[in-house]
């Protein structure tokens, strides 16, 4: 393949079909089948035991809290909850699988046939959920000695089993056709909505940067009216922005291959954060025989209807309804609220308001200056090193007249590089507005003396000319004067 197609040319010729598989680590205190801690960041191989290391004779016991959390997720995704289900063994070898099989659900998932509704560019899309099932996570392999962090070129591989056995929920969509050119945005909107739903339930922190939420992006292309094409599966995409970029790249890549008459290979692929491209993983042209069979050491699960209904009654306000309520409280138009959602700023703005800022100010900072900074850095808005409380403090200093917007942006510079709170940065950098009336009057006098013709115009009633003198004062005070105060001083001094 010589080059990628443009995205516009690709979607003009082909129709994309999406499929998304999302893995979410549950925020339980202990692992799925043993009592080991699930705390993130422990020293390697310190949170393990005979059960999660699969030592001979060790027997698993299912974690009730994980089952309850999975049912809650299923209910929130409009799924039906099975009256009878069981675990199975999925047999395959990987170094990070101490058992050489994964305990998962196969033919009898806990939750089935749900849906998630999203809106992109004012158009509604329904993403149908095929299944939500419960399983255990694998360990983590670290390849060292190479330049890429992958096995190719590495001199050795290390395995940390702390993550092995952590409860993992897999949410699998049905194929999603009909998204057209908006396929990347629909994929991102779905994963965003899914993350918000799960987070609202309090069953996972869904922090993609820590791997507690990971997405596999399936994509195929077909000519309009033709059968669906061969799909690829881009594994373990770990940010909302990357989900969108992975879809966009696969559309461009696959369309270029199809234009050249090259068959798409059914394979797994890896997303490269630095380039926004995908690279080949392993071929999946032939179905793998995982030799599933029922897990003999675990009892069948039969969630009672009473329990399910108790859990349904305990569900919080759905994120979609919550957004509609917040939109009304914040007095935002539909397009403005969609921008907030697209920027993943709902929680950030709500927390900023809770910290004391007006809704209009919170929206202004997060959708304006801070979104610009995040885009320039190529990272999620929430990853910026500034908290909602600090944004509220910054706005408070503007409201008190201690900062203007220009100075506030310079304060943000300092906060983002770790110089402290807005107040600390303003003090260290000497950025607060000059409020000393004597100093301002002296600066105005100098500006009038340097611009006598302009001063005469103002004396004659041409008050618009005051802008020239205001600019001179602002320059002399390095932008730290309050423009409104300076204007009033100028007009008072030159009043006829």
UniProtKB/TrEMBL annotation:
SUPFAM superfamilies: GatB/YqeY motif, Glutamine synthetase/guanido kinase. Coiled coil: none annotated. Keywords: ATP-binding, Ligase, Nucleotide-binding, Protein biosynthesis, Transferase. PROSITE patterns: GATB. Residues 347-494 form the Asn/Gln amidotransferase domain. GO terms for biological process: glutaminyl-tRNAGln biosynthesis via transamidation; translation. Its EC number is 6.3.5.-. Pfam families: GatB_N, GatB_Yqey. It catalyses: L-aspartyl-tRNA(Asn) + L-glutamine + ATP + H2O = L-asparaginyl-tRNA(Asn) + L-glutamate + ADP + phosphate + 2 H(+); L-glutamyl-tRNA(Gln) + L-glutamine + ATP + H2O = L-glutaminyl-tRNA(Gln) + L-glutamate + ADP + phosphate + H(+). GO terms for molecular function: asparaginyl-tRNA synthase (glutamine-hydrolyzing) activity; ATP binding; glutaminyl-tRNA synthase (glutamine-hydrolyzing) activity; transferase activity. Belongs to the GatB/GatE family. GatB subfamily. NCBIfam families: gatB, PRK05477.1-2, PRK05477.1-3, PRK05477.1-4. Heterotrimer of A, B and C subunits. HAMAP family: GatB (MF_00121). Allows the formation of correctly charged Asn-tRNA(Asn) or Gln-tRNA(Gln) through the transamidation of misacylated Asp-tRNA(Asn) or Glu-tRNA(Gln) in organisms which lack either or both of asparaginyl-tRNA or glutaminyl-tRNA synthetases. The reaction takes place in the presence of glutamine and ATP through an activated phospho-Asp-tRNA(Asn) or phospho-Glu-tRNA(Gln). This is Aspartyl/glutamyl-tRNA(Asn/Gln) amidotransferase subunit B. The gene is gatB.
């Amino acid at each position: 393949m010589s080059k990628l197609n443009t995205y516009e040319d690709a979607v003009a010729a082909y129709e994309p079909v999406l499929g998304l598989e999302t893995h979410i680590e549950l925020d339980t205190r202990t692992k799925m089948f043993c009592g080991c801690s699930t705390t993130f960041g422990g020293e390697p191989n310190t949170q393990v035991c005979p059960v999660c290391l699969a030592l001979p004779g060790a027997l698993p016991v299912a974690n009730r809290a994980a089952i309850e959390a999975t049912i809650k997720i299923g209910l929130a995704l409009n799924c039906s909850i099975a009256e009878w289900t069981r675990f199975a063994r999925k047999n395959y070898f990987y170094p990070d699988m101490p058992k050489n099989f994964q305990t998962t659900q196969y033919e009898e998932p806990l939750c089935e046939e749900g849906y998630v509704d999203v809106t992109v560019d004012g158009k509604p899309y329904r993403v149908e959920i095929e299944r939500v099932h419960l399983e255990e996570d694998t360990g983590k392999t670290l390849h060292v000695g190479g330049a890429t962090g992958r096995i190719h070129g590495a001199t050795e591989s290390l395995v940390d089993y702390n993550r092995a056995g952590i409860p993992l929920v897999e949410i699998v969509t049905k194929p999603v056709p009909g998204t057209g050119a908006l396929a990347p945005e629909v994929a991102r909107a779905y994963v965003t909505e899914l993350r918000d739903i799960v987070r609202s339930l309090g069953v996972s922190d869904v922090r993609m940067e820590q791997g507690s939420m990971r997405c596999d992006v399936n994509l195929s292309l077909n000519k309009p009216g033709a059968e669906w094409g061969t799909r690829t599966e881009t594994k373990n995409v770990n940010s909302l922005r990357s989900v969108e970029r992975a879809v966009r790249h696969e559309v461009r890549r696959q369309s270029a291959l199809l234009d050249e008459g090259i068959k798409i290979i059914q394979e797994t692929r890896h997303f490269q954060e630095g380039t926004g491209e995908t690279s080949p993983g392993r071929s999946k042209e032939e179905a793998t025989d995982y030799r599933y069979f029922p897990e003999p050491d675990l009892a069948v699960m039969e969630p009672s209807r009473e329990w399910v209904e108790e859990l349904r009654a305990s569900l919080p306000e759905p994120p979609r309804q919550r957004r509609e309520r917040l939109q009304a409280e914040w007095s935002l138009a539909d397009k403005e609220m969609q921008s907030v959602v697209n920027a993943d700023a709902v929680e950030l703005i709500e927390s900023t308001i809770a910290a004391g800022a007006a809704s209009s100010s919170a929206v202004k900072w997060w959708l304006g200056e801070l979104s610009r900074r995040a885009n320039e850095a190529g990272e999620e808005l929430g990853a910026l090193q500034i908290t909602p409380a600090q944004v509220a403090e910054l706005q408070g200093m503007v409201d008190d007249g201690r900062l203007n917007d220009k100075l506030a942006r310079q304060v943000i510079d300092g906060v983002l590089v770790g110089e402290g709170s807005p107040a600390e940065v303003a003090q260290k950098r000497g950025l607060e507005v000059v409020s000393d009336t004597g100093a301002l009057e002296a600066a105005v006098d100098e500006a009038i003396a340097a611009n006598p013709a302009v001063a005469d115009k103002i004396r004659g009633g041409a008050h618009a000319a005051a802008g020239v003198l205001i600019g001179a004062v602002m320059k002399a005070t390095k932008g730290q004067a309050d423009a409104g105060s300076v204007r009033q001083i100028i007009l008072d001094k030159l009043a006829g």
